[in-house]
């Protein structure tokens, strides 16, 4: 079986996009097999679904859901001008779930944000792998702004402070100056509240997680026989190699040199329990 992670993705989630100048174009009644997000630049139009008829104007957005019967058409006196983008797949469903829009309520009110430049940045994927990635990146950027202005309840739930703290540590562990205060300031919530959330989520304190992550990374780096202990220590956030060796031994019961020897002689035993 071919691994889903091997090579480039077989298809992008962004399936099409375009611009419709003011005219009397209409579509439906019918169903689509993709999400189709529209942004009205000027003029007026109407969207009919099985639930309601919506009168739409400049600045509003609406989305067609897969397999949802719809009919949309312009106002004959002031036909709308709009941009549109089509996308599908599991990732598309996840993105839409983060926005305050559902099949029962497929319309978003006008926002202070002008979405027109964001739609103009999206280009339908071509044949090249970089074109597919660029196309999907444009869609993700666009949807991130919709999430900002129209967050769903699920999007609020996804605001995981403990996860943000952990990701910050994992991105900055190599900095000798990194402190618990830095993590608190990044997450920007009350200190004791973050401490409690982090401990509940990870079973360890923030400072303990930082040390554990550094030591686990050091264990990986020790597989490189050419890397000196001093260089390794600095790579995981310790300026003093002697202090690093002390912390390492406390966490693993080995000195860095002993652990490296263990790796070379017994590769299957290369992941001892960290005792923090």
From TrEMBL:
Q: Which Pfam families match?
A: AraC_binding (PF02311), HTH_18 (PF12833)
Q: What range(s) does the HTH araC/xylS-type domain occupy?
A: 163-262
Q: Which InterPro entries match?
A: AraC-bd, Homeodomain-like_sf, HTH-like, HTH_AraC, HTH_AraC-typ_CS, Tscrpt_reg_AraC-type_HTH
Question: What keywords appear on the UniProt entry?
Answer: DNA-binding, Transcription, Transcription regulation
User: Could you identify this protein by its name?
Assistant: AraC family transcriptional regulator
Source organism phylogeny: Bacteria, Bacillati, Bacillota, Bacilli, Bacillales
């Amino acid at each position: 079986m071919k691994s889903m992670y091997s090579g480039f993705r077989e298809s992008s989630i962004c399936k099409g996009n375009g611009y419709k100048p003011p005219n009397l174009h209409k579509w439906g009644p019918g169903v689509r097999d993709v999400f189709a997000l529209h942004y009205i630049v000027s003029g007026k139009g109407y969207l009919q679904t099985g639930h309601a008829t919506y009168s739409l104007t400049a600045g509003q957005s609406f989305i067609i859901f897969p397999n949802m019967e719809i009919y949309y058409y312009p106002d004959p006196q002031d036909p709308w001008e709009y941009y549109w983008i089509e996308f599908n797949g599991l990732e598309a469903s996840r993105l839409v779930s983060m926005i305050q829009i559902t099949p029962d309520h497929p319309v978003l009110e006008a926002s202070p944000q002008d979405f027109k430049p964001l739609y103009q940045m999206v280009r339908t994927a071509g044949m090249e792998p970089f074109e597919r990635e660029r196309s999907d990146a444009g869609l993700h950027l666009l949807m991130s702004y919709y999430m900002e202005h129209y967050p769903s309840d699920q999007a609020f739930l996804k605001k995981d402070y403990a996860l943000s703290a952990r990701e910050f540590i994992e991105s900055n562990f190599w900095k000798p100056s990194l402190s618990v205060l830095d993590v608190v300031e990044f997450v920007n919530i009350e200190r004791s509240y973050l401490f409690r959330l982090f401990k509940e989520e990870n079973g360890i304190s923030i400072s303990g997680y930082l040390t554990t992550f550094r030591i686990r990374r050091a264990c990986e780096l020790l597989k490189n026989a050419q890397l000196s202990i001093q260089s390794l220590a600095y790579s995981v956030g310790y300026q003093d190699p002697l202090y690093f060796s002390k912390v390492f031994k406390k966490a693993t019961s080995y000195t860095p040199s002993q652990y490296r020897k263990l790796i070379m002689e017994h590769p299957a035993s290369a992941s001892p329990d960290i005792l923090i």
